Amino acid sequence: MRFSIPEVSGSVKIVVTVKLVPDTNAEKKIDPASKRLVRAGMETVLNPYDEYAIEGALKIKESLGGDTTVTIFSMAPAASKEVLRKALAMGADDAVFLTDAGLEGSDVWGTAFAMAQGLKKVGFDLVICGGLADDGSTGGVPGALAEYLGVPGFTNCRRVDVTGNTLKVQRETDSGYQVVTGAMPALVSVTMAIGEPRYASLKGIMGAKKKTIATLALADLGLDHAVGGDGAKTEVATIAAPPVREKARIVEAADGAAGAKVIFDLLKEKKLV
Ligand SMILES: Cc1cc2nc3c(=O)[nH]c(=O)nc-3n(C[C@H](O)[C@H](O)[C@H](O)COP(=O)(O)OP(=O)(O)OC[C@H]3O[C@@H](n4cnc5c(N)ncnc54)[C@H](O)[C@@H]3O)c2cc1C
Fold first, then answer.
1. Which residue would you say has higher pLDDT here, 241 or 232?
2. Could you give the number of structural domains in the chain?
3. 69-75 and 13-17: which strand pairing?
4. Between residues 148 and 37, the one the model is more confident about
5. Is the pLDDT reported for residue 171 higher than 50?
6. 74 Cβ contact partners less than 8 Å away, ≥ 6 residues apart
7. Residue 229: CB within 6 Å of ligand 1?
8. Mean pLDDT score, 167-180
9. How sure is the predictor about 178, in pLDDT bands with cuts at 50, 70 and 90?
10. Ligand 1, atom 28: nearest CA belongs to which residue?
11. pLDDT tens-place string over residues 66-83
């Protein structure tokens, strides 16, 4: 499936997917009935990992120059739309906000499916995702999105270079990195090694106020499958906190030898020696 294939370097349409998440430092609560995060009363911020994706996109735009553009794409509840101004202040050109009450309760499948249809409407040469959402944390969306878009997906990228319609990425692995090449249109997800996200300048903050945030709703997508809670293919069965660790036992011993004996006896009791 092809969308808009750039023939020359300098006219690449980059779309960065940005999730809007509850303040990463705030104490989180789960609603026991819905088993979902309680978002009411929490400040909403850009998913921190997606700020790296924005940085990666802006770097590509700077290296290519010309007509290259960076569009932000987010699917989130309506009330959080203006949070996207921060991404625009960092240097993105415009944003598209997919929102609809019918999307509420979407699992990874529904999210990726709906986002893919939205991205097809927007058009792209290169989609850049963060590697993980700070709240949902499945890391499943980028791969599913590449599949629904019908484009190659390059995950865990620490570096992305674009020449013409060719992509050359460095994929982080446990022991180093792989260099992988492919053609656009494509999707990449990036790691934090892509570069520290830039701060928005005062000029950027002022300019962001005038940039466009277009809105898409479910009716604009023409979906042939249910999404939201009704279309979810997964269900959170239970949510549990990890078991509380036993308190440490503090032993005061007269000297080193006595201390060593206490430790030895304890290890013996636990059948570890
Ligand atoms: C009305 C409405 C209500 C929603 N309520 C919730 C909710 O209560 N809790 C919740 O976690 N999610 C909610 N979402 C968003 C959606 O359901 C989740 O994004 C989805 O489950 C993603 O899973 P994840 O967090 O594990 O993403 P991951 O797979 O961990 O994310 C990896 C990367 O994929 C991209 N990505 C993921 N989700 C989005 C997104 N929504 N928009 C743009 N880029 C994205 C980002 O680049 C991210 O770095 C809601 C959406 C709408 C429209």
1. 232
2. 1
3. parallel
4. 148
5. yes
6. 17, 18, 19, 20, 84, 95, 96, 97, 98
7. no
8. 97
9. very high
10. 139
11. 899 999 999 999 999 999
- For the cut 70, the answer to whether the pLDDT of residue 9 exceeds it is no
Q: Please work out whether the CB of residue 99 comes within 6 Å of at least one atom of ligand 1.
A: yes
Q: For a substitution probing ligand 1, which of 71, 75, 109 has the most ligand atoms within 8 Å of its CB?
A: 75
Pocket flag, ligand 1, residue 118 (CB < 6 Å): no
- Would 23 be classed as within a structural domain? yes
**Mean pLDDT of all residues belonging to the chain:** 92
Phi and psi at 153, nearest 5°, equal -115, 125
Distance 77 CA to ligand 1 centre (A): 10
Question: Does the CB atom of residue 85 touch ligand 1 within 6 A?
Answer: no
Ligand 1 near 84 CB (within 6 A): no
Domain residues for 200? 13-231
Residue 222 in any domain: the answer is yes
Q: For the domain that residue 133 is a member of, what is the CATH number?
A: 3.40.50.620
**Higher pLDDT, residue 36 or 120:** 120
Query: Distance between CA atoms of 189 and 98, rounded to whole angstroms?
Result: 20
- For the entire predicted model, the pTM comes to 0.87
For a ligand 1 pocket test, name from 38, 44, 104, 141 the mutation site with the most ligand atoms within 8 angstroms of its C-beta: 141
- The two beta strands, 20-22 and 44-46, are antiparallel
Site of tokens 């090449």? 181
Inside any domain, residue 251 = no
Domain assignment of residue 7, yes or no: no
